[in-house]
Amino acid sequence: MHKKMLASVFLMILLLQSMNVVESSDFIIQEATIDEIQAAFKQNKLTSENLVQFYIQQIQKLNPIYRAVIEVNPDAVHQAMKADQERKDKVPKSGVGLHGIPVLIKDNIASKDKMNTTAGSYALLKSVVAQDAGVVKKLRDSGAIILGKASLSEWSQYRSSNAPKGWNARAEQAVNPYVATLDPCGSSTGSAISVAANMVSVSLGTETDGSILCPSSANSVVGIKPTVGLTSRAGVIPISHRQDTVGPMCRTVTDATYVLDAIVGYDENDAVATRNASKYIPKSGYLKHLKLGGLKGKRLGIMRAYPLFGFGNDTETLNKFEKHFDTLRQNGAILIENLEINNFNHILIMFNSEYIAVAAEFKVALNDYLMELVTSPVRSLADVIAFNNKYADLEKIKEYPQDLFLAAEKTNGIGKLEKEALMNLTKASKYGFEKVMIDNKLDALVTPYAQSSSVLAIGGYPGISVPAGYDKNGDPYGICFGGLKGSEPTLIEVAYGFEQATNLRKPPPMP
């Protein structure tokens, strides 16, 4: 029999097995949480192999519509079989946490396997990484299964200011599963969409400024943007080491907390940042902060005057969230409203320095990353720009000029201008967000959508986005809780308290 025919028959058998498992079992995989999946494993209602086969089937069915997955790991079924055997043998790490759970990782996070790591770009296709990214090593150590690579805005939305959110040359345009015409937001679009549409259990995204919080809000999932350095960035295609962070994107706060527990901690390949941030990790982990009554006594700040820090004077947005303010109060939170910022206009001007600083940081960091690859068609930002010019007819590359790349290439390290920009960003954080939080003794700042992403980004602060509802058109939107560095335990308590009080998330409509 022809090899291609054999491969097709084998794939069909896998699909039929997957379908039979779902139909014959009384366990429903759709929308299942990590705890429910682990319980099904223990009760012999489900195996990791069945789970992986189900998600492969879902990807084959839905990905042509949503374009949320760039590659499926050809070794995923083998990894699942290994997890099942470990559970049967009662290996110590089996049966808990992420063991046997499939995870999609954003395509800018390196995996040393048969998959590519390309940031959605043809320029890095067939490049070879030296090793797993730090967070991928930790996922593997926990027993998680790397299911595949999630789509993203190409180069994490740092190639072109013209390109729509969720577009990359390899997978083309990602589509919001709730409302196809709605901006899926970027750049961790595939990570959010795949989880929302039940193509995977949980996923990893990355954020430089808004790329976890925004797609989480727009696709009705939970996203945790950790304190910079809490999770390793080693092996992640960089934009700014000062702002880059890796975090979970899941359907529930509990699942996101499981993932956070698994991926935080020291990594010798991102030594300075992870060592400094390790002091923030609670000794007994984050799961203990998933407790009912987590909102009680929490001081939550709300700004109505400044759009950058909160709600501004947008009456429509305020009306959407007033009911949530009531929910927070009813569950014991203390709302500190109408917060003021001294010299706001001066602080606002300082935020413009982010563009200057990131452009220079990107060139330096990307060049370093490319030089460390085992093999690569490109070794510098200049090479990438030349590649894009040469192959402009690939998909829609020529439609989206690489203006951000060109601006970054013109920089020459961290000079006088960049140092001044970095100082401005430090001052903006100190006299803006930090001062508001400290002076008002706040546990978290409450903002709509991903409105506060730049505020949290420039200072390396954490934030959690939780589904907050759907407007009259069915468009999802989230609520964000942001805090000072290392405040993840408190933010988890607040986010979990809000989630449990509202339970607003619902799966997207059938395509």
From TrEMBL:
InterPro entries found in the cross-reference section: Amidase_dom (IPR023631), AS_sf (IPR036928)
Signal peptide positions (record): 1-24
Keywords of the record: Signal
UniProt xrefs under Gene3D superfamilies: Amidase signature (AS) domain
Residues in Amidase domain copies: 51-452
Transmembrane segments: none
Top-level taxon: Eukaryota
Name used for this protein in its record: Amidase domain-containing protein
Organism per entry: Mikania micrantha (bitter vine)
Lineage: Eukaryota, Viridiplantae, Streptophyta, Embryophyta, Tracheophyta
